[in-house]
């Protein structure tokens, strides 16, 4: 599977010689496990995807606002560009119009965390009661060899910290000093991820596609 960081980088950080084949194999396993772990923690997919469409149903009965903006959270983070189309539902909830493409100049995106704010007086004015919002985007990272490309530095560091933590668990056999090392690494990781968490408050989440 593809990895966020090269095992060689983690091995160098841990001062492990490339000739230590048992340690090299465990480092490789730890790096793969760290990638899976971070996908779960950040609630996203790192592998690249094209043309993802998330559909949101906007209603005044349950309308979270952030500083008078309407916020939606995409199914994935690490977004590469996006378009937004708004469609209105009739009063019988039985039909949807063809939709209006919104100008991205009126939408504040956080592409890394995967959400968008439609500001009042701009794009937010299009999101009246009983409207569908469809956002289409690409996401994730391309791959060179077994390693994802153009990964943010903080995410590479997160993968490195988690890989080192898992490696210590694999090799510790329950020793006290190793457990302290694991706790220290996991503490650093938790503080790092807090600044990049995807679960933003007061947002609409995707419903099933139309």
Q: From N to C, what is the helix and strand string?
A: HHEEEEEEEEEEHH
- Structural class by helix and strand composition: alpha+beta
Strand content: 15-25%
Shape estimate: elongated
- Spatial arrangement of strands, main beta sheet: 1-8-4-5
Q: How many β-strands, per DSSP?
A: 10
Q: State the helical fraction.
A: 25-40%
Question: How would you describe this structure to a colleague?
Answer:
The protein is an alpha+beta fold and 210 residues long. It has two domains: 7-45 and 142-172, no CATH class; 49-139. The chain is 32% helix and 24% strand. It contains four helices and ten strands. It has helices at 7-13, 21-42, 153-172, 176-194, and strands spanning 49-58, 65-66, 69-73, 79-88, 100-101, 107-110, 115-119, 131-139, 143-144, 147-148. It has a four-stranded antiparallel beta sheet with strand order 1-8-4-5, with no helix packed on it. The longest helix is centred in the N-terminal third of the chain and has 22 residues, at 21-42. The chain starts with 6 loop residues before the first helix and ends in a 16-residue tail after the last helix. The model has no long low-confidence stretch (mean pLDDT 82).
Set out the fold topology.
Blueprint: H1 7-13, H2 21-42, E1 49-58, E2 65-66, E3 69-73, E4 79-88, E5 100-101, E6 107-110, E7 115-119, E8 131-139, E9 143-144, E10 147-148, H3 153-172, H4 176-194
Antiparallel strand pairs: 1-8, 2-3, 3-7, 4-5, 4-8, 6-7, 9-10
């Amino acid at each position: 599977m593809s990895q966020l960081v090269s095992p060689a980088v983690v091995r160098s950080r841990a001062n492990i010689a490339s000739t230590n084949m048992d340690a090299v194999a465990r480092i490789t396993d730890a790096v793969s496990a760290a990638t899976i772990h971070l996908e779960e923690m950040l609630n996203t997919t790192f592998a690249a995807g094209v043309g993802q469409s998330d559909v949101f149903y906007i209603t005044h009965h349950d309308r979270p606002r952030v500083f008078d903006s309407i916020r939606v959270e995409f199914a994935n983070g690490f977004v590469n560009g996006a378009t937004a189309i708004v469609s209105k539902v009739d009063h019988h909830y039985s039909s949807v119009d063809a939709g209006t493409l919104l100008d991205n100049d009126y939408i504040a995106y956080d592409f890394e965390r995967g959400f968008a704010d439609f500001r009042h007086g701009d794009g937010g004015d299009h999101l009246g009661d009983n409207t569908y919002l469809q956002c289409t985007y690409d996401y994730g990272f391309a791959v060179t060899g077994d390693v994802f490309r153009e990964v943010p530095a903080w995410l590479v560091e997160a993968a490195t910290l988690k890989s080192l933590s898992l490696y210590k668990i694999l090799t510790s056999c329950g020793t006290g000093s190793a457990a302290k090392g694991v706790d220290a690494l996991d503490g650093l990781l938790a503080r790092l991820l807090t600044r990049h968490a995807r679960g933003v408050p007061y947002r609409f989440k995707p419903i099933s596609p139309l």
